[in-house]
Amino acid sequence: MVAESEAAQTKQAESAHSELQSLKEKLVETHSLVENMKNSLRIARNQKLGPNQGRMKLGYNWKLQKRLLKHLGLVNKLKAAMTGAGGSISIEPDGNCIAVDHQAGENKKPEESCQLEAEISSLKSEVTRLRSALKTAETKCHAEETQGTIEIKSAHGLVEQIKSEASSRETELLAELEKANISITDLKANMMDKETELQCISEENDELRMKLEKTMSRQRESELEKELNLLNETIVDLKANMMDKETELQNISEENEMLRLEINKRDSDKGKTNELDEARAAEREAIMKLGLAMEEADKNNRRAARVAEQLEAAQTANSEMETELRTLKVQSNQWRKAAEAAASMLSAGNNGKFMERTGSLDINYDPVKGRVGLPYTDDLDDELLKKKHGNMLKKIGVLWKKPQK
């Protein structure tokens, strides 16, 4: 019965606590909603539409007016210069005509007066252009002013509309705020009721916990007494067993001592045999290492012999190449000598002595003036040159076919 009542009380306490947490969350949500409503109301009250910025840009008009004033200043300077030079300058009321009067002293400086007249004419054209530009700018400015007034009126209407909407929104927000305040007061009342219920439930739980602790302490005392009696009985049994175990341990220790002595004797004998085995194993390992070293030495010797054979083969190849180079040099020298002999023989064939010898056979030959050619002398010369060249080629072939020494 006590356990069931305690479980029911704990369930009631948990349900009350969960309801209290949900009420607190709802209260926080309503507070945040009220703050949002206040902020929106404040924004609606403070919201004001600023005047629409005019799109009238008067910078260009100001530039035109500055240029006009500058040119008018130049005209005044020219006027002062003309009056100082003995002439006069006048601007008509419409500004479109500039007149210049020269006095008698103007004849001294005609070039300066011409230059001044040219400048005045250019200034006149500039003034007219600036006046026309100023008129167009004024018309444009007037149009922009009218458009700006229209836009300002429309902006005022829009401001009035926004104000009316803001006032209606303000009334709606105030109504919602009142509803939220009413719901907050209801939630606060519910929360106070739940807190009182939770306080009562917690007090009941404390009382039940005290009763349960008392009953549990009594039961625990009786259980501890039973356990203590059992422990005393087990202690007596353990003491008796311990005496028996001590006697057994004494007997076992004596037997162990005897066995230890026997094991020591056997270990000494085994140590000697182990030393012999280790020495034999070391000897085998040394023999294996020696065999490996001998194999490496044989491999190195074979490699050295192979390298020596390759070196000897390379040396023999080099000697053979040197002998071939020598023979090639000798052959090239012989070919060069044969070519030189052929060249000398060809040059000797074209020499004047050969011509004198052949020319002395002619009928009308004069050693001083040369030979007077007969109709068949040219054919004879060609035949002799062909025979000479044939003999030359035969000699070159013989030299070419000679065996090399």
Task: Provide a descriptive summary of the structure in words.
This protein is flat. The protein is about 85% helix and about 5% strand. The longest helix has about 240 residues, at about 110-350. The chain has helices spanning about 1-45, 60-85, 110-350, 350-360, 375-400; strands spanning about 85-90, 100, 365, 370. Among the domains are: about 1-15 and about 210-225, no CATH class; about 20-205; about 350-400. The chain is mainly α. A hairpin with a 3-residue loop joins strand 3 and strand 4. Helix 3 crosses helix 5.
The share of residues in extended strands comes to under 5%
What is the terminal-to-terminal distance?
Answer: 142 Å
What proportion of the residues is helical, as a percent range? over 70%
- Name the overall outline: flat
Order of helices and strands: HHEEHHEEH
How many beta-strand segments? 4
Uncertain segments are 48-58, 84-109, 352-378
Radius of gyration: 71 Å
Tally of alpha and pi helices:
5
**Helix/strand-derived class?**
mainly alpha
Strand order of the largest sheet: 1-2
Average of per-residue pLDDT values: 67
Largest sheet: 2 strands, antiparallel
Region (Disordered): 1-20
Coiled coil: 170-262, 294-331
Protein name: ROP interactive partner 5 isoform 4
Keywords: Coiled coil
